[in-house]
Amino acid sequence: MIKALGVKAYHFSIAWTRVLPDGTGRPNLSGLDFYNRLVEVLVANGIEPYATLYHWDLPQALQDRVGDWQSSDTSKAFANYAACVAERLADRVSNVFIVNEVGRFVNLGYGWGIDVPGLKLPTAQLNQARHHVPFAHGLALQAIRASGRAGTRVGPAENIAAYVPAIATPEKHPCCGDCDA
Fold it and tell me: What is the pTM of this model?
């Protein structure tokens, strides 16, 4: 259906929980096969796959065992997950976003408690998460480079807010017309 629409690229997230339900250990082959089939269909239809490795889906078992992104063990487990995915898909996926919206999920999820996982951590613990997520990104980048194909484009997927003034001229204020805006 998306080929009929003329779509040339498709961005999807790979669920860490589907590939490594416990966060570490042996991969779930049926989970990897799901993404393998998805990529095969995309490529066969001339659609470039863009994969995101982490879209806020930390395996619960890993959360319970080591305490989420406050632990460097989570960063290391994430690198192993990235290597596992790269070994299976990198021959056909040349565009990889490692972590989705770090600035949002760390600050709003761990600091303010309004996004996943809904925590309001003290500053010291929040800073641990702020440290371990980019650490995981760097480890995952190394794993993808080691297991993937040359030329794979890898980076973060950040949410960037761009502000544009409603009125882009130095003319009179639109409300009253009397003062300078």
Answer: 0.86
